[in-house]
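Dear Dr. H.,

I hope your travels went smoothly. While you were away I took the liberty of generating a structure for the chain from your last submission, since the lab meeting agenda had it listed for discussion. I wanted you to have the full record in hand beforehand rather than looking at slides cold. The sequence, exactly as received, is reproduced here:
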Amino acid sequence: MLGPVILAASRSDRMRRLISAAPVTRQVVDRFIPGETVDDVVPIVEELTARGLELTMDVVGEDITNPEQAAAARDAYLALVDRLRPLGLGDGVEMSVKLSMFGQALPGGHELALANVRPVVEAAAAIGTTVTLDAEDHTTLDSMFAIHEELRKDFPQTGCVIQAYLFRTEADARRLAASGSRVRLVKGAYKEPAEVAYQQKHEIDKAYVRILRTLMEGDGYPMIGSHDPRLISIGQELARRAGRKPDEYEFQMLYGIRGDEHLRLAAEGHRMRVYTAYGTDWYGYFMRRLAEKPANLRFFGRSMLTRG
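The corresponding predicted structure, in token form, is as follows:
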């Protein structure tokens, strides 16, 4: 399987230098990451929302090695809030954050990440929107869930992400569904050992459906993070069986993947949110997009051959 190989490459400085230096790479990356600055992406926000879509914005970057970088990540999100404020889009544009960017892996990282993310959550609430805490590798999740719980005391709309391939996630989903929180369910995009995660696609897909059923039957707000046509159809059916109205759940897909499907779901009356990343530290995000879906890797390979 190529996925684990690509995920290993996402942590390799040598591969980072090699791929970043390839002339064609920037052209391919633009498919998934539409800009490097907030000024680059504001026109994308305006275009997509005008077409009936919603967005979640992600400032890419994870390799934080000191508190100053963590503070800079916080400030980048605060700058994003400032640019969104005059657009008046409310929760039509939310934000997604990785706590590793806010210093979670540094000494005292749990407290540092909480201190850095709180002002972003406060600023988001002030313009009528919210923040979702992204899931990263399994070693970070207890800290992420604790920060999520703490933030929800003052900002109950704060969301979190759970990953279907982890064995622990079914129990996490039952807890979160009962609490009424916003939960994005994804398959998972980190290299995890067999001791903690399913390794086969069919096992992950089955877990995804079981977990999604739990979320749909619970009291929270499910966010279906998938491009898989079968899982999208199953999500619609589970929502129907649970008696959910179209505004009581949503679909989420990545910018640059299945754009026609984004518009189709929105035209049918579903809430359809496009996960839109931007920034200069795009390498790790880009490599995980390749690992998640073979079609993405084929797209990159074809581009390297035809444009290189």
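Two observations you may find useful: The two ends are 25 Å apart (CA to CA). Residues 303-308 have pLDDT under 50 and may be disordered.

With kind regards,
E. W.
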